[in-house]
Amino acid sequence: MSAILVIEDDPAIRSAVQRSMTERGHVVSVAATGMAGLELVLSERPSVVLLDLGLPDVDGLTIISMVRAASPVPIIVVTARDDGATIVKALDNGADDYVVKPFGADQVDARMRAVLRRSAVTSEAEPIRVGALEIDERARIATLAGEPLDLARKEFDLLLALAQRPGEVMTKRELLAEVWRQAYGGSDRTVDVHLSWLRRKLGETAAEPRYLHSVRGVGVRLMDPGDP
């Protein structure tokens, strides 16, 4: 059983989601506006948030950023917007998953179980160390030689994905699926740009790599500079 917060302005959809999730044994709170939902995130500390983007007071993309600044609660966007740019923006702002309306209650329930499993693993994870790099997934902090790295959300997620498989080459398709949740789409350019930003913050370049090593035609891997 999970405590679910549904932020949805359409009363019919809100009631249907509340009823279907309650029937599946969850405790469900609801909010019709973004700001009311944000207040409930802070006061009730739900296990997961189901968020519509088309809210009457504040755009849902903004609400994602506001929730993420205050809480690590998993956010699943549930919306009629299905264009790629909006999906990317929602995930970049901090959403954990994205479901397009119309949807089945079983599908949403399965997505919730998946994000909650990932959240549980994160809460138990020990910091990952690769050379002088340390990545704390739980606190979402990365340091290099003891100095904090100023990483944007997706830069951190990209570094974490590579650090969880040190020495292994990850393809751009794998990174798009794992970091951007785009298993069947998305641009390799997205990965290239974020890798470039990440390299700059690690004090290296593609021509003179220390941690991030590109393998032409395959992908990229994170390596300890001290390894042969």
Question: What does this protein look like?
Answer:
This protein is of the alpha/beta class and 228 residues long. It has two domains: 3-123, Response regulator (Rossmann fold), CATH 3.40.50; 128-222, Orthogonal Bundle (Arc Repressor Mutant, subunit A). Helices cover 43% and strands 20% of the residues. It contains eight helices and twelve strands. The chain has helices at 11-23, 34-44, 60-70, 84-93, 105-124, 153-163, 172-179, 188-201; strands spanning 3-7, 27-31, 48-51, 75-79, 97-100, 128-130, 133-136, 141-144, 147-148, 170-171, 212-215, 219-222. The chain has a five-stranded parallel β-sheet with strand order 2-1-3-4-5, with helices on both faces. A four-stranded antiparallel β-sheet has the order 6-7-8-9, with helices on one face. A hairpin with a 3-residue loop joins β11 (212-215) and β12 (219-222). α2 (34-44) packs parallel to α3 (60-70). The longest helix is centred in the middle third of the chain and has 20 residues, at 105-124. The radius of gyration is 19 Å and the shape is elongated. It starts with a strand and ends in a 6-residue tail after the last strand. The model has no long low-confidence stretch (mean pLDDT 87).
